[in-house]
Write a structure and sequence with these properties.
By secondary structure, this protein is α+β, with helices and mostly antiparallel strands. The chain is 50% helix and 18% strand. It contains 7 helices and 9 strands. The longest helix is centred in the last third of the chain and has 73 residues.
Length: 312
């Protein structure tokens, strides 16, 4: 019986020891509570710690950066343009005791961030024109297509605040309201901006019209270049053809002249033979089997037939 009692006592001591020990790692911080009330200073350094078993409770909170992603909301700008704004932020718990006493847990902390950041976002977005939220500087566009858009008809406007300063202003306005909850807002950024659906359709229509205008300009310039190339081709073709024809005629003329000269030199050696050949050509062209001629026997036309005797 004594041995059993000792074993039971040892087991109870071991259970108490294990329930009293707890570990805090690098990403955690702990608030110790006793009967629901915090006692002592928060534990923020990593290591092995002990508490009273059963009576005391270790409440863990994250020490690293946490993410807040707000729901997209419709907000009017100063120039009465409705846009959808999607914001995200990074935050951390810097005073776990104040955090535990005010919001108690991360879910409730996110709810506080929703209220405070959303209010700051609406305050800044509604205080400036749309261009201030969209752009962060007056840097000129470097896209070639913009050269074909009439910026007088689609003015962008000059910015004085800019997107980057607006997000810094949201951060500066929200941070003081979060200090009492033990929260530090590290950064706030605009994740996405979009037009309200009706305005979005109008903007898309204008963008399509502008792109069509640019395409039509390119198309007309291309057609003009094509006509210019075709005209140059026709001009070059006619020039080549005329030069070739002239060269051919010159060659033909020279050949005819040389042929005439050769004939003339040949016929000069025997004028009677030349007269005979030419007369035979005239006979061939003037007379055939259907031709009939009535000529005097003294006619020069038949002089080569006079005295002709066929061979036996």
């Amino acid at each position: 019986m004594k041995i059993k009692g000792i074993i039971i006592i040892v087991i109870i001591l071991l259970i108490a020891l294990f329930s009293a020990a707890f570990v805090v790692d690098e990403t955690e911080q702990v608030v110790i509570t006793q009967f629901g009330r915090p006692i002592g200073e928060p534990i923020q350094d990593p290591g092995l710690y002990f508490k009273l078993p059963i009576i005391q409770q270790a409440n863990y909170f994250a020490k690293n950066l946490l993410n807040w992603d707000g729901d997209p909301g419709q907000v009017p700008t100063l120039d009465k343009t409705f846009i959808w704004v999607d914001i995200f932020a990074r935050w951390k718990i810097v005073d776990p005791l104040a955090f535990f006493q005010t919001v108690n847990n991360e879910i409730a902390g996110l709810a506080r961030l929703d209220d405070i950041i959303d209010a700051a976002v609406r305050n800044f977005i509604t205080s400036y024109p749309l261009i201030e939220t969209v752009r962060k500087s007056n840097r000129k566009f470097e896209v070639d297509a913009v050269d074909y858009i009439d910026l007088d008809k689609t003015p962008l406007g000059e910015i004085t605040m800019g997107r980057e300063k607006i997000t810094k202003g949201i951060l500066a306005q929200a941070q003081p309201k979060l200090e009492k909850f033990g929260i530090r807002l590290v950064d706030v950024k605009i994740k996405r901006l979009n037009y309200e659906e009706k305005v979005q359709n109008s903007v898309y229509g204008r963008m399509i019209a502008e792109r069509k205008q640019i395409a039509e300009k390119f198309r007309s310039e291309g057609q003009g270049e094509a006509r210019k190339i075709e005209g140059s081709r026709e001009r070059d073709l006619k020039k080549i053809t005329s030069e070739a024809y002239r060269a051919a005629q010159e060659i033909k003329g020279k050949a005819d002249a040389e042929a005439t000269l050769i004939y003339a030199r040949a016929y000069e050696k025997d004028p009677e033979f030349y007269s005979f050949i030419q007369t035979l050509n005239i006979y061939k062209e003037a007379m055939d089997k259907d031709s009939s001629l009535i000529l005097s026997t003294d006619s020069e036309f038949l002089k080569y037939f006079k005295g002709y005797e066929p061979r036996n």
